Amino acid sequence: MGLSWSDVIDGVRSLDVPREDIVLAGSGPLLAHGVIAEVGDVDIVARGEAWDRVAARGDMRAGELGDHYVDLAGGVQVFSGWRGEPADAVIARSAAVDGVLVASLADVVAYKRRLGRPKDLEHLAALKRWADVMTDPVATARRAPEVLADRVEAGERLAPVLAALGPARPTVLALPRGGVPVAAPIARALSSSLDVLVVRKLGLPANPEYAFGAIGEGGEPLIDERIVAAADLLESEVDAVVAAEHRELARRVALYRAGRPALTLTGRTAIIVDDGSATGSTAQAAIAVARTMGAARVIVAVGTAPPDVLAMLGRHADRAIAAMTPEPFTSVGQWYRDFSPTSDDEVLAILRTSD
Predict the structure, then answer these.
(1) CDD domains, per this entry (predicted)?
(2) Which among 4, 33, 174, 297 could disulfide-bond with 269, CB atoms 3.0 to 4.6 Å apart, if both were Cys?
(3) In Å, what is the CA distance from 333 to each residue of 103, 188, 274, 276, 344?
């Protein structure tokens, strides 16, 4: 008989060591996220004092890749590192589930692919099915809507799903400013660089919210000539909007990049992140800009969006996911308890921390 999630939680707590110094690894994260129903044993990675205390309780043995481990009662194995990586690195990418730190699903995918046992292949197949369900707009809309605590929680919900997708050569791109705190946990879980993608919509002079195109860092304006024709815009009007938005784009790029190297997306998977998308216009513009910058694949990840908007973004991107897709949908902010504005100082602090 296998171990349930409650059994695993009890096993972790029974170690009686600081919880911030231990992380559930192996198949445990799949159980924590509901990908599988049970596990046969419990793999835990410990660091510092936690490792010292656990190591004193049993016979310490050498692992295959330079780490050490101890066998404890109840099918628990505690490791000083994981598959050649130090415990600190595994913990840095982890996230809490029910008060227990669990390894990033990106680490689980790499581990399962490396071993390739029948059990691992079954788990990878289960993870793919789980990711498909978690990224399906109709399926997510059926779940009871829950208000997100804040932008960080949105990122923590999105991170395991994105990790399960196993994107190749990912670059996490936040749409400033609100997308930056959402993107930070995602970049950490994927061991990816975090950057900003500064995009400006080109709005009709009479209705700035209705875009006839977009402009992004390092790219030429993307203009929908059909909308320009339908709105009967003069060339001079188009040029004036482009010039104004180009100035604002340059100002924001200078502020947020602050000496950082120019953004390069050639051959990479661009993961565009925002706190929400009520109409999809900004995210759609960002998708177009990322593609013109050479991204091989584009994934959109937002905190919240209406199901139809998420489905529309999925048609323009290679994939689109949301932490929640509630209805009725009036605004992004209604689905956050804390939707206070993200300041430029916060954006710059998060970007510095991620370097």
Answers:
(1) PRTases_typeI
(2) 297
(3) 30, 25, 12, 8, 19
Confidence of residue 210 (pLDDT cuts 50, 70, 90): confident
User: In one letter, which amino acid is 204?
Assistant: L
- Please work out, in degrees rounded to the nearest 5, the angle formed at the alpha carbon of residue 151 by the alpha carbons of 147 and 154: 65
State whether CATH 3.40.50.2020 applies to domain 135-197+263-354.
yes
Q: Residue 214: how many CA atoms within 13 Å on its side-chain side?
A: 21
207: exposed, middle or buried (Cβ count in 10 Å: 0-12, 13-18, 19+): exposed
Q: Cα separations (Å) of 15 from 9, 19, 60, 150, 295?
A: 10, 9, 16, 32, 45
Range ranked top by mean pLDDT from 20-34, 213-227, 239-253: 20-34
Tokens of 330: 């009036």
CA distance 291 to 299: 11
Give the right CATH number for 5-129 from 3.30.460.40, 3.30.70.2190, 3.20.20.70, 3.40.190.10.
Answer: 3.30.460.40
Local confidence band at 8 (pLDDT 50, 70, 90 cut-offs) = very high
The tally of CA atoms less than 13 A away on the side-chain side of residue 124 is 16
Q: What is the pLDDT of residues 115-158, one digit of tens each?
A: 999 999 999 999 999 988 887 766 555 555 578 999 999 999 99
The DSSP bridge pattern shows strands 170-174 and 193-196 to be: parallel
DSSP 3-state of 345: helix
Output the pTM of the full model.
0.83
CATH architecture of 199-256: 2-Layer Sandwich (3.30)
So where are the chain's domains? 5-129, 135-197+263-354, 199-256
Q: How many CA atoms, within 13 angstroms, populate the side-chain half-sphere of residue 253?
A: 18
Axis-axis angle for helices 105-115, 179-190 (nearest 10)? 20
**pLDDT tens by residue, 61-80:** 988 777 899 999 888 999 99
